[in-house]
Each structure stands twice: as structure tokens, then as C-alpha cells.
Fold:
Amino acid sequence: SRLLNGLKKFSEQERRLIKLLHVIFDCLPHFIPPTSSIGDILNHGTGEKPEPEKKTPQRRKSKGRNEPAPVEEPVEEDKPYELNRASMIHDLNQKVLPGLYQFMSEGESAKETLGMPTALSIIKILKVLPAKQAQFQLIKLLSHVSSHIKSRVQLVRDTARSTLVEICISLGPAFSFSPILDSLTRNLERGYQAHVLGYTVHTLLEKVISLLTPGAIDNCIPKLVKILLEGIYGKVAEQKDVSAIANSMVETKSKNLDFDSFLLIASVVKFENFHLLWDPLADKISKIREKGELERFYTISNKVILGIAANSSFTEANVISLSKKLVTENFKLADSNQTDQVQWVPEESKRKSAREASIDTIIVTKAKRGEGNTKQTEQTDNSHVVVFFALDLFHSFLSKSRFDPKNSAQVKEIDEFPEKLVPLLKLRDNKTLLVTLKCLMGLLNFSKLPSMNKTELLVKITKKVFKLLHNTSPGTELGQGCWQLLAAMVREYDVKHLTQPQFELMLEHVHGNLEEHEGTYQQATLFSLLRAIINAKVMTPLIYDMMEIVGKLVLRSEHNSTQTQAANIFVTYLILYPLGEKRLQQHLDFVMSNLSYDLANGRSGVVEILNLIFGKFPREMLTKYAKFFYFPLVLALANDDDSRIRKML
Structure:
């Protein structure tokens, strides 16, 4: 009490006096050993004190005769100590705590002292109070601090927020997070306070997340999700788009904190309680109608997946079962919403460049032949978004090698996926189609799954992919995904599931686009497809025509990666394909004649081809053509004026 009075009289010494109070309150457990306090709740999970063991009275052995030994009288508890303890607790409740609260509110430097020092002093007292009293005082303290977060002064809000974080850490977030959240939602209800609430929730999560174990704050998840969805879809989100409001205070400047909070929550939710996080999101999905809102949900979905990947409660088996469950439950519903809809790609979009031809697909009602009906319609359900989430989750684990090919139980579960993925290729949502293609490609590379060795399944996949290509612009991401999957199927499996017309269609696509998209991601996909076809030794006249284009790229390309890939494909073709002596001589003449090509970059490409030939051709063939190679190389070494080329030679 004297120290508290000193805080009022000697404001210039308040920091030292508060430190002294801290020292005194640290010693409280030695003077007031807690029986059933908030400290017990933190350490043992309950406030119950174990019952003392009852001692059985001992009988004394007497000589001569068996006489019952006198029973020892129980020692009475130290009543003066109990009275002293009760008196101290009474003084803490009636004198010390009210004085600290008053100082927090009325001190000369209340804006500073509101923060850590005084509030933490109160927390030290709460740890020795009986549980009911401690919980009452904790609610009072949290309400007191939370009320300051409503302040329009930024410094006061920041200090109060830091105080809440310190209280949460001091008491342990598993115990204190829920009452803190309750206090915040009671005090921050309207107007700008809603922005402060979302910002404060994110700050709390970010600061204490490393102290939480999965399941510790699961009881808070419904409230948290409600707050975050309001910040993403509600009036709070609308206000953030108004520049005058967005720049008015720190809490409104960032638009991504609510999304990041979903990542933090997903990283600590227990798998058994995942429905607490997912059910409100699924309910929100069903009500979304605008494209912008849907894009925001895809961002939430991505954050949740990142959180799950860092969550120790989610095993690989859990992820497989969750993904299959969501796909199975939602595919039929998603499919039923598009039975009368077809995908339409304008012809002009097929002629756009890769940059212009982004996803141009729209949903249209199915028209009878000759009517040309292109009226745009709106899907009435977003079950395909749930399917997308499930597949994206599965693919994230698959692409990061989280599944073990040597685990027979996992392989058995994963082996059911290809059959489930094939029907999804008829959905009309480009995002879902693309992630389906990625999952199929990941399964091709994962392991030799028994289901993927079935020719019947590979034929189904191939037909679905070619049907997608027929309705998709080649320059889109979806189109590239189709070609990549076909390349992987040709590379990893027997080509019996592919027909000659299908191979010719693939080669025609490569032939028409390889030079046009030089140095781009699309060209890398085309090279991958061509390399797979050549390694499979597919026999078709188009292959021989393709080599002319590949040779031109070696000479004319300004990109080293393009030259290298073209050179490798050219030499692989020379080695694997049955070439007559005349055709082989024509190809070798093309190589040697271009040792004197005008551009140095072209000459370096030719030398790269020769290095590959000398490293990969059979020795007897090299011996046969030794003179043919030797003299032109000597002349090139003597006459080339580029030091880099001479060094390569």
C-alpha cells in the first residue's frame, strides 16, 4: 500500500517503484502458497488439489501382553497461518488490486504505464489467488486493457495491444487466448473498432503461435473465422477499399492480414477439429456469386493449405483421407450443376499470342445445332471450389514428396486417386481442371502405381485430355497443362494407349509452335513433348520434318537453353532412329557445313552438337566417320576468329 501511495506522490520515481513492486509480487508464492489458483490451472489443467494420503495408525509392540497402542492425535493445521493467508488474499483483493487499476487509469504517464509493467504486476497477483477470484480479476483486467484498444490515439492502441500479448504469453496462450478473444469481441463491436479487432487478433496469433500445440485454441476457431470473414467479405473489407479510410490508421492499411491469420489458425487446428475451420468456409463458398469474391476465397484456400502443411497434427494419411472425402462428397454436386452447360472458346482467342490468350473460357447454355446461342450463365453452386481445395491440398503434399512410395498403406490409398481424377476432367472450371492435371502428372512421377499401369485407364485419360485441348486455347495455362501431362504419359509409360493420329496431332502442334515461342515456358513444354516422343521411337514421317526446325534453332536461337535442348534432341534422334546411310550423311553434312556459319552463336551450337556426337555415338561409327569430322574441324580451329569458339573446338 505504501508503494502504491508512493506511485501517486512521486510520479518521477514511478518506474523504479513499479520494478520494486515486481520484485515483491515475484515473492508472493513463498508467502501465499496457492491451493487452488490460476497457477494450478496453468500447470496441471485443473484447480483441484490432490487429497493427502491418510496414514493408518500404528500399534506399539509391548512386552508381555498385547495392549492396543494409543492412536496418535491428528495435528491441527496452523490456524494462525491460515488466518494470515486469508488476510493477505483479502488485502490483495481489496487494497492492492484496486490501487493498481486506479494507477493504470489515472497515472500521469498512463499511456506508458498501461502497458507491460502494471498489467504484468496484476498477473503476478492473479497467480496466487484462488481460481474463482483469479478468473474474476482476469476478466476485469482484460476488459480494462481491451477498453483502451478502442482509443482513437494510435499510441494507446499499440500499447494496449502489446499488453494483451504479454498477458497472453505470461499466462500461457492455451489458457488465456479464449478470455482475451471474448474481451476483445465485447469491446470492439462497431465502426473503426472492427478494423482494430481484426488487426489485434492477427497480432495475437502471430506472437503466440510458436507457443501453441495443435488443438490448444480450437474452441476459439468459430469466433476467429467469423471475425476474419468479416474482414475479407463484410463491411470491413468494403471500407478498406476506400482510400480515405485505408490510410487513416495502421489497422486499415494492410489487406492481407486476415488471409495470413487463416494460415496461422490452420497450422494449430487439430485434425479431428478441422471441421471447426472448414464448415464456416464451406458455408461461405455456397453463397459466393461474384468473381472477385471467389478469387479471395482461393487466396484463403491457399493459406489454409500452407498452414496444414506446417501442422504436426495432420499426417499424410489424414491428408489423403480428407482429400478423398471432400472430392467424393462434392464432385457429383459440382457435376450436376453443369450438365446443360458447355465450354466455349472464341475462335479469335485461339489466334491470340500467349500473352493475350489468357483464360478466355466462359460458361454458356447448351445450344442446339445452328442456333449459335452464346448467352452467358452463372453457376448456382460452387462445389467445384471445394473439389479444387481438396486436390490442391493433395497436390501440395504430392509435389513436396511428403508421401512415401515405400509405405504400402499410403500407396494403397493413393492408388485409388487416378480413378477419381478422370471424371473431374469433364468439369468446366479451369482452376479445378488445371489442378486435376497437376495431380495426374504428380501421380505419374510418384511411383509405378498399379492403377496407372492399366492401359484402359491411360486411354481414358488420353481421350479426356485431347477433348480438353479441342476446347482450350493452346496458349492458356490449362492448354500447357494438357501438353505437359501428355509428355509425361509418353515419357513414363508404354505408348500403346496412344494412336498414330494422336501422335501426329502432337507433332503438328510442336511443328507449328516451336519457333514461334522461342525462349518461353511454352517452348520448354514443346521440347519436353518432342523429347518424349523421340525417346519412345515413334515412327512417323513428321519426325524427319521436325529435325529441320530443330537444326534451325541450333543455329539461329539467341537463347542458350534453347540451343542446348535443340542440340540434345537432334543427337538423340540421330542415335535412336533407323536412318539410312544417305539420310544420316545429309544430317552430318548439315552439321559440318555450318562450322563456318556467319554468327558465332550458331557456330557454338554446331560445336555443341559435335561434342554430343563424340560422347554418345558408338565407337565403330565414330571410327567410320573420323576423317569426315577431322579435317573440317582442323580448318575451323585455324580460321575461326572467335576465341570462345576456338576454345570449344
Remarks:
- Residues 259 and 300 are 6 Å apart (CA to CA).
- The longest helix spans residues 79-106.
- DSSP finds 35 helices and two strands in the chain.
